[in-house]
Amino acid sequence: MSSVSKAHRAITPAGDASKREIRRYVGVESACGFWSRFDAGSGRQQRAWFLGASRSRGNPRAVGDEAFQRKCFERIDRLREGGCTALFVSHAATTVVELCDRAILLDRGDLLADGSPKAVISRYQRMLYAPQERLAELRDQMKRECAEGELVAQESPVGSPSSRSASVASRNESSYEAHFDEGLRSQSEVVYQRQGVTIIDPHLELSDGTRVNVINAGKVYVYTYDVEFDQGVAGARFGMMIKTLTGVEIAGAVSALVNEAVEWIDAGTHLTIRFEFTCALAGGTYFMNAGVLGRLGEEETYLDRRIDAFMFRVMSSVTRLSTGLVDLVDNVNVSVASSIQVTS
């Protein structure tokens, strides 16, 4: 018996889903009116499994391509609205925050966190990027805090225990503020050949100088680094760039236009460069570059450049209305359009 046939037979009794509904949902509608084992690959088999599981109110999960994942999420939403509890198991932090009302973090059978998705994801990512030598200590700490009920819920999650004391939430409110995660460090940095200039210590900080690498959208931060000049430099400019994990350049800036560059900087000079910005990024992990440009002869070139010099994470927000990586919209207004009368 083929695996497709097995999936078909297992689904029909369990979910009471008709063969035609399965074919339509999976995306297989053969001309002869039946589903052949040659019609479906492994992805469609997973789709068939999902339909049966969701019909029987089991543990639905998103499988297949992006369009089908969207269909899965819509079905989960309908189940939830109908009073069904859906168990979603995933490492996709953003999806957990978007889809779930409550989250738990399990590791080797132990419960390490239980509460709002944002709070749990924050702890998961903290554990994910922790140095190996501190992982066991951090794990024990999270397990102990969870057992004591010391996990903040930013919002009151649907279905979560209402007995959590306000004092616990207040005491842990700082968990959602920008902070520094020592385990979140770039492992992919590339440094250009230096030419008389050295970039030192690129990092993010608050306006008061506090270092952070886990930040919130909508807040103001400063990307800063020092530059030492071992030789005189003409036409100096300073730059930065923010990139995704896959290297897509999202946004960058330079200190001046080419014709407004610093005319001359003497050897022995030590400068501090600061780029102030409001974070408009979606939740996720990003990298930052740092670069110093100058003229060698008549040509402008990099005198020092550091790729993936700094790694940071933007905390996911369940209240974010913007889609995509960058929030470009300041306000959304919906109004009734004035009626237009057309006369002949």
Word description of this protein:
The protein has 344 residues and is of the alpha+beta class. The chain folds into three domains: 3-81, no CATH class; 93-176, no CATH class; 190-314, Coagulation Factor XIII, Chain A, domain 1. 27% of the residues lie in helices and 28% in strands. It contains eight helices and 13 strands. The strands form three sheets. Strands 3, 6, 8, 9, 10, 12 and 13 form a seven-stranded mixed sheet that branches. Strands 5-4-7-11 form a four-stranded antiparallel sheet, with no helix packed on it. A hairpin with a 5-residue loop joins strand 4 (197-205) and strand 5 (211-212). The termini are far apart.
Number of domains: 3
How far apart lie the N and C ends?
69 Å
Number of strands: 13
Supply the CATH superfamily name of the largest domain: abc- transporter (atp binding component) like domain
Query: β content, as a range?
Result: 25-35%
Radius of gyration: 27 Å
Content-based structural category: alpha+beta
- Please give the largest β-sheet: 7 strands, mixed
Q: What is the typical, i.e. mean, pLDDT?
A: 76
The helix/strand series, from N terminus to C terminus, equals HHHHHEEHHHEEEEEEEEEEE
Gross geometry: flat
Number of contiguous helices: 8
Supply the CATH architecture of the largest domain. Distorted Sandwich
- Helix content percent band: 25-40%
* Low-confidence sequence ranges: 1-17, 30-42, 56-63, 152-175
CATH-derived topology of the largest domain: Coagulation Factor XIII, Chain A, domain 1
What would CATH call the class of the largest domain? Answer: Mainly Beta
